[in-house]
Amino acid sequence: MRRITTEVAAVIFGGCALAFAAMTGWAQSLPALSADEVLAKVDTNVSYGSIRYTGRMEITIGGESRYKTMQVVAQGSSKSFAEFTNPEDRGVRYLKRDKNLWIYFPTEQDTVKISGHLLKEGMMGSDVSYEDALESSDYKAKYSASLKPEDTVGGRHCYVVELTAKVDTAAYDRRTLWVDAERFVALKQEMYAKSGHLLKVSTTLQVDRLGVRWFPSSVEYVSKLRNNTKTVFTMSKVELDVPLDDRQFSIAALTK
Amino acid sequence: MRRFTLVFVVLAMAAVSASAQEQASWNLGGSFSMQPIVGYASGFSYGSGTTLGLTVKAGTGRARAEASLEAAVLTGSSAQLAWAIAASPYGRKDELLLPSGSSAGQDAAIAGRIRTLFAKLDFDWASFTAGRQVVNYGRGALWSPTDVFTELDLSGISTVRRGTDALRVVVPMGATGGFDAVLAPTASPGSGRYAARLGGLIGDLDAAVMAARDGAGKGWVFGADFKTDLVVGLYADAVYEEPDAGGWGTFRAAAGADWSIGDFILAAEYYCNGGGSSADLLFPGTHNIYGSVTWTASELLRMTLTVEGDVQSAAGTATLIAAVSAAQNADVNAYLQAGNGSAGYGPGYGVGGAAWSAQAGLGAVVKF
Questions:
Q1: Closest A-chain CA to B365
Q2: Which of A2, A110, A157, B122 has its CA 20 to 30 A from that of B287?
Q3: Taking chain B, what is the end-to-end CA distance rounded to the nearest angstrom?
Q4: Burial, A81: exposed, middle or buried (Cβ in 10 Å; 0-12, 13-18, 19+)?
């Protein structure tokens, strides 16, 4: 009698587990794609010829929050222009061309060339670096990729892709992406320094449909070098592949 | 001077005309700050400054105008410092300081200044700016010998650049280069200041050459400056000044570096003034050094230590500033400054005459 009860329990438990797996899709293995194929699909979503958006950074330290707002235009990963619009930083402008960054301070009417090492620093005291905020994520051009075992993030199945920088212009030496298997958007990223230290973790909070693409429009960055801080970077009024005047990415535009 | 005024009026009219054809926009921003201070020289002194700054900007795609005004109520030692600066060679006649006449020198004063007041027209091929504006040449954090226009105001805890009445024409050359001409005539045009600068990005080198005419004393000025990245940011800035009286001219140069290590940003600068006080009233010493360390303890707290000094006379100033973001758009800062008071060094330019003095202050700034 006891043996029968155990068998019945095993059948019931097994049936439930199978039903749960079927419902959540856990039992289904992801379509077999190579790392490069996954990366190409991610690039299709998040790389662009040009972009225009309104940005908002909400920086949280402990229980305190500060926000900054900006208007950004960018062309690929080489040119970008940002103007801050929040009262504290109103009129401060950034011009980035390749690895060169200039900042215009309206109070002093001064244009200052910023040293390249500062590109990896947090922009305006946030956990978002200049490169995070102002560059197109053209992963395939900058990183070589390899697949890791599949995983889930927020209940969504993900390919896990490990990227290793193959060019000097890559923002990070190594990064790991958890790529949504359905929408091909990185839902989570870990960014590493050359030394192997984990620098930052980002989590995608919102994914929007823009035409045929899925676009991560709100991302939370957590610096692993600081305690108790995070920055949520949100893009709204996003326009992709809009025609932009090249003069917008000039020193003259900084002082307009 | 009359011609200069005429050009200004024509440009302003053109700006208004252009504005009429496109949708205009404007905004008003500013700051309100309060700063009580306590100082010690031969005895304790107390003072305070309450300042309102307003900036109005209006414009369209091609034309815009800007006015930036500051008004302050000063008490105690802050008022006394303002009177002393006004009476010194660093004083400016175009800045308001009340009460005037026989009532001057009181322990309370109202100060006012127009920092900027200009109209600007931007075309694709050139931009024209007429009126009071801050013209920034050079690269230095503190010293820029090529900057023939900017006068520094060192009376606060951070350096402020004063505006210059000028007509400026900038012709872009590619995305990162340009030709820049500035005319700052006076009532007697021969004693005005005029300069031209040609600069751009060559490889990783952001460089410029300049020539200027300073009719007020320096004669002809020829200079060059650059900034580049070699793991650390490196920059330099040098001029040769040839006096009208003939003879050997003077050479002045500044060179510096900046770099970051984790949460620290470091900068160091050296300034060689070959012309003494006639070339640079604020920093007459031959060899001067400057260093700063900024520690971003968190996104809400930043601490900066700066040290600057004249190597030969051992005159110098050290300033420690802690800035805390207290709320959205509101900062609280505290500072401690000590120096030996000669020329540009020491709290308040050294116009008080004390050999050694110290000052501490607590300030609050709200921006809107």
A1: A88
A2: A110
A3: 37
A4: buried
